[in-house]
Amino acid sequence: MTQTTLNLPRGPVMVDVAGFSLTEAERARLSHPLVGGIILFRRNFQNIDQLRALTAEIRALRSPHLLIAVDHEGGRVQRFLDGFTRLPPMSVLGEAWDRDQEEARKLAETVGYVLAAELSACGIDLSFTPVLDLDWERCAVIGNRSFHRDPEAVAELAEALQQGLGRGGMMSCGKHYPGHGYVEGDSHHLMPQDDRSLAQIEQDDLVPFARLADAGMGAVMPAHVLYPSVDSQPAGFSKVWLTDILRGKIGFDGVIFSDALDMAGAAGAGTYVQRADAALAAGCDMVLVCNQPEEADTMLAALLPPPQPKLAERLERMAGKSRAEDWQLLIATPDFAAAQAVVKQLAMPKDALAGPQVGEAH
After folding, report:
1. Which backbone phi and psi does 347 adopt, to 5 degrees?
2. What's this model's pTM, rounded to 2 decimal places?
3. Which residues are annotated as a binding site?
4. What residues correspond to the site Important for catalytic activity (predicted)?
């Protein structure tokens, strides 16, 4: 049976799939007009050949193809391991910054390049990276995922990483806006609260977001964190944070992805349809529904998104640059092997994998 490619604009919902290839039910879900992207997890990765076959299968479903995303930051948040360069936690780059800033910038650029080119060669459009949260040494779920405590260091290193991502064919996604590093709680399991004033947050945590927005950041993912001095809604459901501050004050015009709506930090917004409604009404472009296929189907059947005149243009910017086959040729070159060697030499410190697992369904 020949498969027909559907001509459908990308919708505002990102979903996931269960295994190494698509089931008929998943093909039907991915063909829904409200779907615009898919996020992959460790459970979707067996080896590089299988991953390339899966992304080719997803891309063949629709034109323009569904955006294919993954959380592939380094350290304990790296979904694909076998055949990929092991990426260090970002705190390793922060430690390099304390020794030699220029060298640290070069290392960050190389890490971004290797990260993006290896994913691009597998047909993946974007990784939800870099983490722009500051390391206040309070938040275990962020921990060594953060570059540094100093907002200037985070901004410089993240911008260098963003340049490397661009060289590897990929846009960046800064998270978790406006900063998840100051709270102790993990928003996968509860609703953390940050009681600081807007002025305090602007002075520290917002610095990297503003700098990367000026430097062409492609997307932002807000935190499921409550900042009661600023708004009564968590950032991902807050028109103040997303529309007034991020779009208005900072001037960001890329994609705003919700963090996963199955997280406990999102539960206060109600059912999945209500959560998606609230996120889209606040200013999100695309909502993520992970690990809950039945909820995803219910939501897709009931969701009536607001008008999103810039959605197609914003999502198109996030699509990978060049064909996977071109990246496969590039990552086989001696020059790329030299870049991989630089990244491999960055120590995976003994605590590299310490901290809570992030975003995997068990």
Report:
1. -60, 140
2. 0.93
3. 71, 79, 145, 175-176
4. 186
**Residues classed as catalytic:** 188, 259
Rounded Cα distance, 130 and 187, in Å: 18
Q: How far apart are CA 66 and CA 77, in angstroms?
A: 23
Q: Does residue 52 sit in helix, strand or coil?
A: helix
Per run of 10 residues, the mean pLDDT along the chain (length 362 residues) is 83 97 97 98 97 98 97 92 94 96 98 98 97 88 91 98 97 95 69 92 96 97 93 94 97 93 65 90 95 92 95 96 94 97 82 58 40
Nearest-5° Cα angle at 277, 229 to 206: 35
HSE (side-chain half, CA atoms, 13 Å) at 251:
7
Q: Are 213 and 250 in contact (CB under 8 A)?
A: yes
Residues making up the binding site for substrate? 71, 79, 145, 175-176
Alpha-carbon torsion angle 336, 342, 345, 350, nearest 10: -90
DSSP letters, 233-267, are S-GGG-HIIIIIIIIIIS---SEEBPPPTTSGGGG
Give the Cα separation of 40 and 19 in Å (integer): 9
Q: Which two tokens stand for residue 132?
A: 């722009």
